[in-house]
Design goal:
The protein is of the alpha+beta class. It folds into 4 domains: about 1-55, 2-Layer Sandwich (Gyrase A, domain 2); about 95-215, Orthogonal Bundle (Topoisomerase, domain 3), CATH 1.10.268; about 245-255 and about 275-380, 6 Propeller (Neuraminidase), CATH 2.120.10.90; about 385-400 and about 420-545, DNA gyrase/topoisomerase IV, subunit A, C-terminal (Neuraminidase, 6 Propeller), CATH 2.120.10.90. It has helices at about 1-10, 40-50, 80-120, 125-135, 135-150, 150-160, 170-195, 195-215, 350-355, 525-530, and strands at about 20-25, 30-35, 65-70, 75-80, 245-250, 250-255, 280-285, 290-295, 300-305, 310, 325-330, 335-340, 345-350, 360-365, 375-380, 385-390, 400-405, 420, 430-435, 445-450, 455-460, 470-475, 485-490, 495-500, 505-510, 515, 525, 540-545. The strands form 8 sheets. Strands 20, 21, 23, 26 and 27 form a 5-stranded mixed sheet that branches. A hairpin with a 3-residue loop joins strand 12 (about 335-340) and strand 13 (about 345-350). It is elongated, with a radius of gyration of 38 Å.
């Protein structure tokens, strides 16, 4: 790093357009920031840095190998990549030929012995008579060779054969062994007689070695006609894999292959201890860009494949007490929607995010006042509806406001604070959900209170209104229910996780929940699941999420 900075300082004429260099390295890792002037193409500046500094180095490989010349004498020779592959294949062909010839000789030798043993067993009385009439072992061997037309090897094997081999089961074993040997001999002769067959064996054995000793690549191969002149970016380094399931949990992030991920959760039964709950989840291809939004109004964007497989919020580069509250995948014609605890809403075009944000870095996306945080952030189409829920208190009933997101004009400036989404009446906001057009006819709203009362209400119970209003009553709260803790939406095919402040959880099928209206009290989960199982002393409900 110091060498790179010294190189830039000593050759400023080669780096015209770079106005500032900052070393922001810390205990989390190395980080150097290059700022470019107005009108300077950042990609061109990066190209000059890569070419004229040690930010990227070329490593030469001396491919020296022993290669047979025309006379068959091995001599050292420098090889190209293609020549290395040719020599490797030639070496493997030689190994397979010699190995096959050796194995064929052994198989034919064993087959010859078995042939003699089976012949002796078929004439066992005559064999016994010849051996009994012979004075010595050598005489017996010669007599067997002469009278039964056997070779010396076969005759010796008969003399060495223990009596237990006379059993019928032993005879069957020898017949089976000879049958297998004949098939193997045929296979080995096919290999020795055909170059194409030997090449097939080379390919097959190479695949077996790859499967047995496979390790993840430590480097990435980037294909480009421009070769070393190419400016390699973060997106070029993403390894193609299966679709990734990204989950934001209470203390950090987890990324797994979506296809292989499986949760073994018993439904309708509370956990006895704290569990890890995915508060947010999205599925994305490794090369797709994802957005992370923190409660302090900062945004991170980069390829899904560059996210750690597991890590705390600090590992992601967040400050103390900062956490991720929004997760989305960058898709065409969609926009980022941000809602704050003060009831403000802001929409941002994806093009504005991608064109002004560096990959894998945190930067402000919304202006916040003192004591204001981001409550919710998500990605949606222009036709989506947003539902905002307040908690309610002794003076104000919990409310839900539903309005169309396209009524909010996008703002590109990161410091812009958005516009009023819902009129604040003194009670805090506890949740927001985005509902896409295709889900509106079959979606239910699921809400839960701090004392464990739950409602499942058809979305049709919530009329579409204009932004900035108060919304409609969700619940008539009492001392038994307590204020609303969380809200989500789900179809009949979904499950919801209801979790306590201490992260105990119960998973419920939406289709099993009784459908009620906004005027009813709702299901008392605290009464159904006895005290201590889910809602113990001080273990208030924290909210619900779709699973």
């Amino acid at each position: 790093k110091s060498t790179i900075l010294e190189r830039i300082a000593s050759a400023r004429e080669k780096f015209v357009g770079i106005t500032d260099v900052r070393d922001e390295s810390d205990y989390l890792g190395m980080r150097v920031v290059f700022e470019v002037g107005r009108g300077v193409d950042p990609v061109d500046a990066l190209d000059r840095l890569l070419i004229n500094t040690q930010m990227r180095s070329s490593l030469s490989h001396n491919a020296l190998a022993l290669v047979n010349d025309e006379n068959g004498k091995a001599a050292p020779k420098n090889l190209s990549l293609l020549d290395m592959i040719v020599e490797f294949i030639r070496h493997r062909l030689n190994v397979i030929t010699r190995r096959s010839r050796f194995e064929l000789d052994k198989a034919e030798e064993r087959n010859h012995i078995l042939e003699g043993l089976l012949k002796a067993l078929s004439m066992i009385d005559e064999v016994v008579s010849i051996i009994r009439k012979s004075q010595t072992t050598e005489t017996a061997r010669k007599n067997l060779m002469e009278k039964l037309d056997l070779t010396g090897v076969q005759a010796q094997a008969i003399l060495d054969m223990p009596l237990r081999r006379l059993a019928s089961l032993e005879r069957k074993k020898m017949e089976d062994e000879r049958k297998d040997l004949m098939q193997n001999i045929k296979f080995l002769k096919t290999i020795l007689s055909s170059q194409d067959r030997r090449l097939e064996v080379v390919s097959q054995e190479t695949e077996e070695i790859k499967d047995k000793y496979a390790q993840p690549r430590k480097t990435v191969i980037v294909e480009s006609e421009e070769g070393h002149q190419l400016a390699v970016t973060v997106s070029d380094l993403v390894t193609p894999t299966e679709d990734q399931l990204i989950m934001i949990q209470s203390a950090g992030l987890q990324r797994v292959d979506a296809k292989s991920f499986h949760e073994n959760v018993t439904r309708d039964k509370p956990t006895s201890r704290a569990v890890s709950i995915a508060l947010l989840r999205e599925t994305a291809k490794p090369e797709e860009n994802v957005l992370l939004i923190s409660n302090q109004g900062r945004l991170w964007q980069g390829n899904a494949g560059r996210l750690p497989l597991a890590g705390s919020f600090e590992d992601l580069g967040l400050k103390h007490a900062e956490k991720v509250v929004g997760l989305g995948v960058v898709r065409e014609k969609q926009k980022l929607v941000i809602v704050t605890t003060a009831g403000q809403i802001k929409r941002v075009e994806m093009a504005d995010i991608l064109s002004t944000r560096a990959e894998a870095t945190w930067a402000g996306i919304i202006g916040l006042n003192a004591n204001e945080e981001v409550l919710y952030a998500g990605v949606s189409s222009d036709d989506a509806h947003l539902m905002i829920c307040s908690a309610g208190n002794e003076q104000v009933t919990p409310r839900v406001l539903r309005f169309e997101t396209n009524s909010i004009n996008p703002q590109a400036t990161p410091s812009a604070k958005g516009v009023t989404a819902i009129k604040m009446l003194g009670d805090p906001l506890v949740g927001c959900v985005l509902v896409e057009p295709g889900m509106m006819k079959k979606t239910n709203v699921v809400a839960v209170t701090l004392k464990g009362h739950l409602k499942c209400i058809s979305i049709d119970e919530f009329p579409i209104q204009g932004r900035g209003g108060q919304g409609v009553q969700l619940w008539k709260i009492t001392p038994d229910t307590g204020p609303v803790a969380g809200i989500t939406v789900g179809t009949e095919k979904d499950q919801v996780d209801v979790f306590s402040e201490k992260m105990k959880r119960i998973r419920l099928d939406v289709k099993s929940l009784p459908k009620v209206t906004r005027a009813t009290k709702g299901l008392n989960l605290g009464a159904k699941y006895v005290k201590g199982d889910l809602f113990g002393a001080g273990e208030f409900v924290a909210g619900v999420v779709v699973s």
